Known about the structure:
Blueprint: H1 3-21, E1 31-34, H2 40-53, E2 59-63, E3 65-66, E4 70-71, H3 79-87, E5 96-104, E6 107-115, E7 123-124, E8 138-139, E9 141-144, E10 147-150, H4 153-165, E11 168-185, E12 188-203, E13 210-213, E14 218-222, E15 229-230, E16 234-238, E17 241-245, E18 248-251, E19 256-258, E20 262-265, E21 269-279, E22 291-297, E23 306-314, E24 323-329
Parallel strand pairs: 1-2
Antiparallel strand pairs: 2-6, 3-4, 5-6, 7-8, 9-10, 11-12, 11-24, 12-21, 13-20, 14-15, 14-22, 16-21, 17-18, 19-20, 22-23, 23-24
Helix pairs in contact: 2-3
Amino acid sequence: MSTLRIARLEAWALTVVERVNAHERVEDARVELKREWPAPKKAARRLAGHANAVAGVEILWIIGLDEDDGVVGAGSAELADWWAGTQSQFDGFAPSMTDIRLDVGDKSLCALGFETTRAPYVVNNPAYGSQGGESVSKEVPWRDGTRVRSANRNELLRILLPAAIVPEIEVLEGDGVAKPYVVATEPRVLGTELEFSLSMYMTPRGESATVVPFHRCTCVATGASVDQRIEKFKVSLSRPRAYRGEGRDHSDSVTMERTSNELIVTGPGKCQLKAVIDLMEFPKWLFNRELRLTFSLAIIDANVPLCIQVKATPTNLVGDETARWILEQA
């Protein structure tokens, strides 16, 4: 379990607590508050519905927090038993969970972060086989506002079709570097160029070409707290190059085509993802610290982006560099 992910989850949960204490409404598409531990069967259905409705995005449940009454405490339920009972209601995979205990005053809360990348989630129907003759054994729940119901055809397509179009990604290696660059010569002004580069192998899933438009791609670098965040990177992808010597090179791919605006993928192959931003000042929290990078790549005809999360670990500097990282899949 990544310590960085735990820190981010804690910061997110504490921000929600602060907003509740300020009498703000905080429940939205990603956040749900529970005054007390829900029964596992009900929890499984609600969690599956929540995860299906936001498929691909992390969600947060906080046990022991109420929008009207604030911090009430999480009670004495045993998390391991509760989660085992909740997981047992899923057919196949349940959303993966990260939990942390929060002490707020003299009370404790439990923050639960759930990854939803393996949607759709299916749960057992608790009424199956009952005396009433219920014959439906499984359900794909869907969260609609504050209620949970069965997903309809259009909602199932929203989950399933993007999965059939979004390519499979294998992260191979990557690095990041921060180094000074000259902003102006008279007077001399230095800034910092921050660049992250990721080598990966992409396998399209659809029958037509996979097109990735650069202007719809993003990169976000985050530190250990919610205010440690850098975005607005310029993101691009390129096909691999092979060198012939004397500074000349040529494309080393028959499945990748690149223009100044997009990458066009017609078959499995290796490509390079690059995110660059120029900073007038180098944030102190970046220096020699582990980071979390989230790349979001838009795919033409897909309803959801391809999300890649990697961990950036500090490593030794080279030359006049300000910082350097090694990237690996989170």
